[in-house]
Amino acid sequence: MKKRKIIEICAVIFSVCFLHISSEMILIPEHFPNIQEGINQAADGDTVLVSSGIYYENLNFLGKEILLTSHFLFEEDPSYIAETIIDGSNAANPDSTSTLIFCNNETESTIIQGFTIRSGGGSSWIDPQYPSNAWLSGGGIFMYYASPTIRFNHIKENIVENDGSYDGASGGGLLCFRGNPTITNNIFSLNQADYGAGIVVDYSGAIIKNNLVIENSGGQLYGGGGFYFIGNDVEPIIVENNTIFGNHSETNGGAMRMWGSTITSLNNIIWGNTQNSGGQIYGVGSSSFTFCDIEGGLAGMGNIDLNPQFIDEELFLLDENSPCIDAGNPNMQYNDLEDENNPGFAQFPSMGTFINDMGVYGGSFASCFQQTDSEINTVQKPIIKLSNYPNPFNPTTTIEFSIVKISSRVLGQNPTRDFNNPKIDIYNLKGQKVKTFPNLQINKSPNQQIIWNGKDQSGKPVSSGIYFYSLKINLESTITKQMLLVK
C-alpha cells in the first residue's frame, strides 16, 4: 500500500509538472513526437523547443504568436542550426509542399529561429489582383498576409518547379505576399525557382537585414536569381547589410530583379552574381541604392565598385584590408556594435571602427554564422562530453564534463589555442538563467565535476521541473543537456 501511494504521488507530481510546462514551453519530441503537434497544442506566448534531429514535416503556424526554436535558444550556439532540420520533402498535399506556411495573419511575435529549412516545393495560391491565375511559390517559407519574424535559420535546397499546372513558380527560399515580415541573420542558399530563386517580395513590405543570400539559381521566367521584387504595399521594403553573392538568373537580374517595386538598399555587398542578359541588378526604377559595394557599379551616394576581399566563400568574412570595412552609411544609427574590451573599435564579426561595415557583418544585427575566433579567423568545433547524475534528482546533482577532441577548419592561419573561462549556465523552461558556474578550469583535468544543489544564484531553492544546463567555452561553443528536479 505504501509503495502504491508513492507511485500515485509521483504521478501527480509529473502530471502537475507537465501541465505547468505545456503552458510555457513544449518540448519536441519529449512531449509530442512531431513539431506540428506541438504547434497545435501551443497557446500564444508559448515556446516550442525542438531537440536536434531531422523532422520530415510541412508546418503551418495557424496564426499563433509563439516562438519555435531549436536549442539555439541557449547561448545562441550556431551548431544547433545545422543539427536541427525541418525537411519538407514528404508533404501529404501536392499543392502545399512548402516547408513552413504562415497564412493566418501571423505577427512579428510569431518567431522561428535556429533551424535548417530544406527540401520544400512550394504552395499553390491565388493573387486576389489576378484571380484567373494560379501560382506555386515559397519552397522553404510561404507567407500570405502574414508578418512573422524569421531569424537565424539556414534556408537551403528548396526547389519550386512548375509542372505546367501553374502560371509561374517563384520564391525558392521564401515568398512573402501582402505582409511585413522581419527577416534577419539567415542564410539563403542553393534554392531554385523560375523567378526569385532566393526570395520574392510580392506587393509586400519587408525588413531584410544581415542575411547571406548565396548561390540561388533560376529566373527562367521573369528573372531574379537572389531576389525578385514586384510592387509595394503600405510598409517599405528595406534591404540592409546583406551579402548577395554567386546567384544566377537564366534571364536578367542575377542578384535582384525589380518589377514596379521601390526598395531601399543600403550597406549591402552585391558581388559575383551572374545572368544571361542585362545586369545583376535589373529594373532599378525609383529604388535607392546607397553605401553598397556593387560589382560593375551603380549610381548612388557612397556606392563603390571594389573587390570586397572575402576570406572565404562560405562564411564571407572580410579580410582586414577589405574596402567594405567602415564604408557603410556613417550615420550612427547604422553603427556596428562596439567592442567593450576595445573602445572605439567594432565587435567581431564586424571589423575596423564602429562605423558600419558593408555586408552581412555590419550594423547592430551582425552575428557570425559559425563558431569563430575573432582574433585568428578560425572556425573551432570542440567535441565535448557533458552529463549529470542522478537524473531525475533531489536536491543535488553532479554535472560532469570534459573536452574529448578539437577539430578545426582554418580560414587563414593554423594556430592552437587554449579554451579560457568556460562556464556552465542553468536555465529554467522559460529560458531564464537561474545559476552560473563561471571560470571552470576545463583544460586541467580530463573529467571535471561540479555539484548543483538546486538553488539559484541568490541561494534560493528553485521549484520542481525541467532545467537545462549548458557548457560554454570562449569560442562560443556550447552543448546543452536536460535534467529533471523532482521534490
Annotate the secondary structure layout.
Layout: H1 2-22, E1 25-28, H2 35-41, E2 47-50, E3 53-56, E4 59-60, E5 67-70, H3 79-83, E6 84-87, E7 100-102, E8 111-113, E9 116-118, E10 123-125, E11 135-137, E12 141-144, E13 149-151, E14 154-156, E15 169-170, E16 174-177, E17 182-184, E18 187-189, E19 192-195, E20 199-202, E21 206-209, E22 212-214, E23 217-223, E24 227-230, E25 237-240, E26 243-245, E27 248-249, E28 256-259, E29 264-266, E30 269-271, E31 274-275, E32 281-282, E33 288-290, E34 293-294, E35 372-373, E36 378-389, E37 397-410, E38 423-427, E39 433-437, E40 448-452, E41 465-472, E42 478-485
Q: What do these coordinates show?
A:
The chain is mainly beta and 487 residues long. Among the domains are: 73-79 and 90-305; 381-485, Macroglobulin (MG2) domain (Immunoglobulin-like), CATH 2.60.40.1930. Helix content is 7%, strand content 35%. The chain is built from three helices and 42 strands. It has a ten-stranded parallel beta sheet with strand order 1-2-5-8-13-17-21-25-29-33, covered by helices on one side. Strand 38 (423-427) and strand 39 form a beta hairpin. The longest helix is centred in the first third of the chain and has 21 residues, at 2-22.
The average pLDDT value, as a whole number, equals 88
Sheet of most strands? 10 strands, parallel
Instruction: Give the overall silhouette.
Output: globular
Rg from C-alpha positions? 24 Å
Structural class assignment: mainly beta
Q: Strand fraction band?
A: 35-45%
Straight-line N-to-C gap: 21 Å
- Biggest sheet strand line-up: 1-2-5-8-13-17-21-25-29-33
Low-confidence runs: 1-23, 372-381, 405-418
How helix-rich are the residues, as a percent range?
under 10%
Discrete helix count? 3
**Number of DSSP E strands:** 42
